[in-house]
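dumping these here so i dont lose them again. two proteins, back to back, each one seq then structure tokens. dont judge the mess
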Amino acid sequence: MLYKRLEDDRKEMNSFCIDDLVPKDHLVRKIEKAINFDSIYDLVESCYSPDRSRPSLDPVILIPLYKKI
């Protein structure tokens, strides 16, 4: 089916939880349990200003992607 994107589609908001998109037995969940990523904060601390600019995103972010076939 051919779908023509409407200009109004860009104004549409969706809300979802990434955690709900990842199966409970996904490899990324196993990696997250097995590895302590806390040392990353010490490694990147000098790259962030404590009093200027916008607040940063958490440098320890795993974004699991799961594609259903």
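---- next one ----
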Amino acid sequence: MPAEIRYRPATPRDATIVAHLIAAGFATYRDFAPDGWNPRTPMQEEPEVYDRLSRGDVHARVALADPDLAGFTGWMPASHGRPRRRIPGRAHLWSLFVAPAWWGTGLAADLLAWSVSGMRESGYTEAQLWTPNAHARARAFYEREGWAPSGITRFSPELGLDVILYECDL
């Protein structure tokens, strides 16, 4: 594993490599997903990643360990309903994925800290994220980092899994 990580803002041109990282992360969900569950593919992820990275209200960062993408995080204003309406004072951690070779190195905590700092500096007072209810590793990580489960769960049709809402005061 390379010792040095280089960070930079994510752009729409990163959509393909970010989609591959996210899909690889989703593939690890097989460890806890029900039999017959299939992860989203890079082809399914790329259009949404591109669209989000093209928006002016999405803040995202890549962590590069040349020549590979080691991690990615992105956040934006929280919203709900159809049509989407912003939740005043609340930010949403849209994505945080780290390549398995970088698990346990502190990279995920660094990326999360960058997102939380950006939310706070942008004037948000609280944050939210959704993670699979059965994803014990992710849930333990977020709880170590000061996030708390809200107790609100729902089925995510995009993931095909139950997800739980985590919250954090900024």
